[in-house]
Every structure is written in C-alpha cells, then in structure tokens.
C-alpha cells in the first residue's frame, strides 16, 4: 500500500505520511489539539493495509473533546481516488444540514492545504 498509493507523501520528507500507532496513542496525541486537527495512521484492523484518520471536535480546554474516526480506506478505494483528494473533499453534515470539511490541521498543527495542496489532483473552486 505504501509504495503504490502513498509514495509521494512518504518520499517528500514532510511529516505528512501516515504513522504506525494504535488508536489509543492517536487519541492521546490529539487530546490537547485544536478542533479540526487530524492524524493519519495505518489501520490496525486491516491485514492488507488501509489508512484511516481521526480528528478532534470540541474544545481543547480538556472539558469536552470528542474524536471522530473514519472507516479505513483500502487499496481498492485508493486506486479510485488519491488519499490527498479524499482529505480535501471529505465532508460531514454540520448544523442546518450544511456539509463541511472538519479536517483543518494535520497533526501537530500544519494547515491541511499547506501540507497537501501539491498532491491534489486538480484545484477545486474555493481552494
């Protein structure tokens, strides 16, 4: 999986490639981060290789922090859409049924588009 679908991220030298950590460690790293901060990691549950991400929702004052994790993206899904494009176009339904992208900062605090713009397949309106 790494070679075929993530090589550009892996070889770039930036700290933007997925990491091999547990979901518990992931939450420990994210718990004091700003809402919208997300972390990429390899899935623990997939034998064939898959990537997932978790983001922080709520305040970072320690009173209320909620984590959202997505189902892992497999080789099959990554063959159809690049992982950077998945991150760019990811949406959840927010208040008043307005879709929004909750992914703002790549861990530890890199603006998402600063980290991934050069890997997007083509610009989208508003980016």
UniProtKB/TrEMBL annotation:
Matching InterPro entries: SH2 (IPR000980), SH2_dom_sf (IPR036860), STAT (IPR001217)
Pfam families with a match to the protein in the record: SH2
Keyword DNA damage: no
Gene Ontology biological-process entries: signal transduction
Annotated SH2 domain residues: 10-109
SUPFAM superfamilies: SH2 domain (SSF55550)
DNA-binding recorded as keyword: no
Keywords, comma-separated and alphabetical: SH2 domain
Name of the molecule in the record: SH2 domain-containing protein
Example of a GO MF term: DNA-binding transcription factor activity
